[in-house]
Amino acid sequence: MKDRRRTGGGRAWARGSSASSSWFALVAFLCCPLFATVAFSTFRIFGVSFRSVLLPTWQTSVINAVATDHSFLRRESISATATIAAKRGSNNSFSIRIQEAISFPDQVLLFLQFSSSLPRLDLVCLYSPPSNPTTSSSSPVADLRLPAIIPSFPTSFIRCPLAPRGFSISLSPDLPLLKPRPWDHLTYAALLDPHNNSTVVFAKGFNLRPARLSDHSRYECVFGWNFAKPKYLLTSPALTAAQEIIRCNTPPSVLLRFRSQSEPNPPLVSVKTKGRGAITLPSVARPETLRLSSRKNRHTMCVCTMMRNQARFLPEWIIYHSRIGVERWFIYDNDSDDDIEQVIESLRMSNYVVSRHLWPWVKTQEAGFAHCALRARGYCEWVGFIDVDEFLYLPTNFTLHDVLQNYSSMPWIGELRTTCYSFGPSGRKTTPSEGVMVGYTCRLGAPERHKSIVRPEVLNPSLINVVHHFHLKEGMKYVNMEKGLIVINHYKYQVWEVFKEKFYRRVATYVADWQNEENVGSKDRAPGLGTKAVEPSDWSSRFCEVNDTGLRDWVSMAFIDPQTGLLPWQKRRNLI
Ligand SMILES: *[C@@H]1O[C@H](CO)[C@@H](O)[C@H](O)[C@H]1NC(C)=O
Ligand SMILES: *[C@@H]1O[C@H](CO)[C@@H](O)[C@H](O)[C@H]1NC(C)=O
Ligand SMILES: *[C@@H]1O[C@H](CO)[C@@H](O)[C@H](O)[C@H]1NC(C)=O
Ligand SMILES: *[C@@H]1O[C@H](CO)[C@@H](O)[C@H](O)[C@H]1NC(C)=O
Ligand SMILES: *[C@@H]1O[C@H](CO)[C@@H](O)[C@H](O)[C@H]1NC(C)=O
Ligand SMILES: *[C@@H]1O[C@H](CO)[C@@H](O)[C@H](O)[C@H]1NC(C)=O
Ligand SMILES: *[C@@H]1O[C@H](CO)[C@@H](O)[C@H](O)[C@H]1NC(C)=O
């Protein structure tokens, strides 16, 4: 009984776990010395090609630790409360609970809960085949252990290599085995909108039409701890539905729970279809309370962005935008494994207001922007949606505040559209140490698209947005900004070394081996590149039609330290 409550109200997969985990512990104990050597070859037995996806992300140190040290598994079963002792240095123990396992196209994310902060553990992902009474006892070799991929900073989740289909996953024989839930059939985030006490729920799996309002009467929200027990659930009608963002009234008793700040076990929320064949999506979403916006102390301009493994570009982007008037950054981190946390921490030490939000969800860019816009509304009058390689440029020396002030007195203006120019490698063959604004000065002549700065207060409540454009409340207007006043320099085609990462990211999304001739028709492909990540011989001179040194000159004037000749984001050269 006690055990059931601990594992989150007795989900289906928690049942029967004690039997299988003690069996598993025995197998693990007996086979320990064997495991590390069979793990990799065993992995191929399942006939799935993991190699191209997994190898680049495994750190050798972790692999070594697994190969040489089995104390983690050999340790006697510690207690029924699934306590894992921290391995190195101390005998402090802490408890760990796997809240959820979610299966993504290339890995499984385990969401964890700790009794204290996560020490550096060499965690191991344990896999167990679907229970099959006729084979499981005779083929223990079908069990796998693989090193977990642990980020270099404290976080609430760790990643495990993809589980073979049907396998369950765990981190210790003491913990229950979980069957990973698929990422594309899931309620994954929720926000409590304090402006009218509604709950905004982000879900995957209904395949709502893009860019359209859907019929909200077909949905309702469900609040509770265990969706398998309808008796204990609260439902409330949906007010809007679009792009898999459902807004519902919040039941008063749920509101009450959230008003007490320290709710230890907030309920989950999910979305249910109504009528025949009704389904309730599984959920990992506990509504998060947002700050009510107050006009006082509000920032004039904030930025929302989504990124993955681009931390090295952040200092230039943030220091520059701070100078022209951005006051706060919301970074939606799509599962980076670079040093993003340290980079953000050092920017914070220099008083830049930057926050990072984990957003590992697949194909959810629009939802991420909607999530960010709602969150930013409590802090910011205007929010820009730009990428880390995009820089707002005001050729006339005005700041963003000068420009925005003109629109603050026109409350019917909800969106400012800004033209983007795409810059090419500008003759460079290696990454410019001065950064992108000084390094790249040649671009295509025609603008490629535009980006928006929006007033989050006047977004349409459905939060529909299409490629960076939000629908606005009825009666609200947008304006196209004059190119002479403000544009965006988009350093889109950088030196090959940088560009090829972007290329890889795009193609890799659903293709294990990115050289497969798939996605060939994708509009995201760079013109003329085909599927080969091989540097075209004329790359450095491509995408160059107009010399545009405006931002370079402004940045050189405004930022270069006269003493050292360096820009603030430039790494000090070796002085010896
Ligand atoms: C280990 O536990 C013992 C007894 O609780 C304690 O005296 C000792 O200081 C602990 N050692 C470390 C390194 O925490
Ligand atoms: C919240 O806002 C939505 C959209 O404007 C509206 O449909 C709904 O009725 C509001 N809910 C409450 C509780 O006021
Ligand atoms: C939201 O709910 C709280 C608690 O029930 C109530 O005090 C508050 O007035 C409500 N706010 C709105 C905008 O309805
Ligand atoms: C995050 O990155 C993965 C892998 O590149 C991709 O599949 C996914 O769609 C991205 N998510 C968002 C929200 O862009
Ligand atoms: C911008 O300011 C700098 C220095 O204050 C000045 O040299 C430059 O002429 C100004 N540019 C414009 C377009 O006003
Ligand atoms: C603000 O509006 C005034 C009047 O239309 C105009 O003269 C001025 O240049 C504008 N300033 C900016 C920064 O757009
Ligand atoms: C850009 O300027 C360089 C150096 O002045 C010149 O060689 C080149 O032809 C120019 N490119 C374009 C596209 O105007």
From TrEMBL:
<keyword id="KW-0812">Transmembrane</keyword>
<dbReference type="GO" id="GO:0005737">
    <property type="term" value="C:cytoplasm"/>
</dbReference>
<keyword id="KW-0328">Glycosyltransferase</keyword>
<dbReference type="Pfam" id="PF01697">
    <property type="entry name" value="Glyco_transf_92"/>
</dbReference>
<keyword id="KW-0472">Membrane</keyword>
<feature type="transmembrane region" description="Helical">
    <location>
        <begin position="21"/>
        <end position="46"/>
    </location>
</feature>
<keyword id="KW-0808">Transferase</keyword>
<dbReference type="GO" id="GO:0016020">
    <property type="term" value="C:membrane"/>
</dbReference>
<dbReference type="GO" id="GO:0016757">
    <property type="term" value="F:glycosyltransferase activity"/>
</dbReference>
<dbReference type="InterPro" id="IPR008166">
    <property type="entry name" value="Glyco_transf_92"/>
</dbReference>
<keyword id="KW-1133">Transmembrane helix</keyword>
<protein>
    <recommendedName>
        <fullName>Glycosyltransferase family 92 protein</fullName>
        <ecNumber>2.4.1.-</ecNumber>
    </recommendedName>
</protein>
<comment type="similarity">
    <text>Belongs to the glycosyltransferase 92 family.</text>
</comment>
